[in-house]
Amino acid sequence: MQLMAVRVRIHGRVQGVGYRAWTVVTANRLELSGWVRNRADGTVEAIFKGEEPTIRQMLDACREGPPAARVERVEEEPARGIVEAGFAAKPTV
Question: What domains can be seen in the chain, in order of their start residue?
């Protein structure tokens, strides 16, 4: 299978509800590489790298998020550049 990488921006009530921690756990369970971080505008941004079916599974999960989140929309685009192995939370930008 071919690897792919996507950059996503999650909008809604996604900060202060454990979204980043949930993303790290979910991405690691799916064996994806990448990172997640809060943005100053109230969104959550992430990059996911892995096999396409697994990426699609993660994107579907992101549309739901953790129980306290209220996801309004998920924007996605191809990610560019090198994505290192493993998945982690990054500081807010």
Answer: 3-89 (3.30.70.100)
Q: Give the active site residues.
A: 20, 38
| Cβ–Cβ < 8 Å for 64, 13 | no
- Dump the DSSP string for 12-64: EE-SSSSHHHHHHHHHHHTT-EEEEEE-TTS-EEEEEEEEHHHHHHHHHHHTT
- pLDDT tens readout for residues 7-50: 999 999 999 999 999 999 999 999 999 999 999 999 999 999 99
The verdict on pTM exceeding 0.90 is: yes
Considering only CA atoms, give the Rg of the chain: 12
Secondary element (H or E) of residue 8: strand 3-13
Token representation of residue 69: 């989140």
